[in-house]
Structures are given as structure tokens and as C-alpha cells.
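Lab notebook, design round three. We kept the backbone fixed and only want residue identities now. Task for the bench partner: fill in a sequence for the structure below.
Input C-alpha cells:
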């Protein structure tokens, strides 16, 4: 994908956080294909009020420095912080100078991870973020129905299905 973007005159920057102990890392892959990366030390999976504020400030600074055309976000917390950073950027811009905000759901944490009260708060937050998101991407029609209808997070006119871009059939043949 990046080669096509570069050929069209676009640059790519992947901003990512630290990985937890025991997690596998693919952070070497972008550099191998010529994609610039920026690792935010304070951006991690766990909730850390001070670290999250620092990561948000770093994201806002990066968005203003890069002045992107598109801010794509992924994962729960990074998706929240990234969309809010894009919102701050867009609040200072008009029309074509705004960046598009695209969030991809690779699953979600709105059920079964937290207490029902916390899950409701997360759902409310995701609904608010959907209002400032230009496009919501799900990986399957079932996930789209989940986000748009059952959980009432997305807007049907904003949500699209983009199937996973990895071939997984060979994993079906693993020995048990």
C-alpha cells in the first residue's frame, strides 16, 4: 500500500505505542518497507492517567507537525487518543485543510471486558467519537451490524466493511 501512496506523492507515518511484555512485535516491518514510524513511549495498552495525557500531547504535536490528509486510528485507547488529536487539529482548520479521520475496529471492548456500567460509558464515548470520525471501518458484515445496529455506535452512512488483508486459510490446517 505504501508504495502506491508514495508513487502518488503521499507520505506515510505510523505512530505507535510501546508493547507489553509477552506481546509479539511487528514494528520492524514498516521500516523494512520504507515507512516512517514514531514510537510514543507513553502510549501503551494499560490506562495510565499521566502517561495517557503525555501520549495525547505527543499525538497532538505530531498531527500539527505532519499536517496529515488522513488520520487512521486502530485499537481502543490509541483510537480514542488519535481521534481526539485529529479533532483538535481539525478545530483549527477549515474545509480542505482538515484531515479525514478513519477508525478501524479490530473487534471492540464494549462488552465482556468490563462491568456493565463501564461498558455503557465506553459505548457512550465511542458514540461521541463516531460523530467526529469521517469513516468507520469494520472487518466483516457481522461486525458492521454489531457496531451500527446492536451497539448503536456507528452511523450506517459512515461505516464500511473492508475485509482483513491477510490470508489466514493456511492457519486452518494447523495440527492440534
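Proposed sequence:
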Amino acid at each position: 500500500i505504501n508504495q502506491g501512496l508514495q508513487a502518488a506523492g503521499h507520505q506515510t507515518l505510523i505512530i505507535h505505542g510501546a508493547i507489553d511484555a509477552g506481546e509479539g512485535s511487528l514494528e520492524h516491518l514498516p521500516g523494512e518497507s520504507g515507512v516512517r514510524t514514531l514510537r510514543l513511549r507513553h502510549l501503551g495498552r494499560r490506562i495510565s492517567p499521566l502517561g495517557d495525557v503525555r501520549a495525547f500531547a505527543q499525538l497532538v504535536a505530531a498531527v500539527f507537525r505532519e499536517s496529515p490528509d488522513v488520520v487512521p486510528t486502530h485499537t481502543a485507547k490509541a483510537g480514542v487518543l488519535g481521534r481526539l488529536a485529529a479533532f483538535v487539529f481539525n478545530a483549527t482548520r477549515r474545509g480542505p485543510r482538515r484531515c479525514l479521520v478513519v477508525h478501524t475496529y479490530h473487534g471492540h471492548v464494549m462488552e465482556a471486558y468490563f462491568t456493565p456500567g463501564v461498558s455503557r460509558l465506553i459505548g457512550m464515548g465511542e458514540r461521541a467519537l463516531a460523530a467526529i470520525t469521517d469513516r468507520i471501518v469494520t472487518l466483516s458484515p457481522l461486525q458492521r451490524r454489531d457496531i451500527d445496529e446492536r451497539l448503536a455506535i456507528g452511523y450506517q452512512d459512515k461505516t464500511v466493511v473492508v475485509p482483513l488483508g491477510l490470508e489466514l486459510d493456511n492457519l486452518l490446517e494447523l495440527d492440534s
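Keep this in mind before ordering anything: The CA atoms of residues 104 and 137 lie 4 Å apart.
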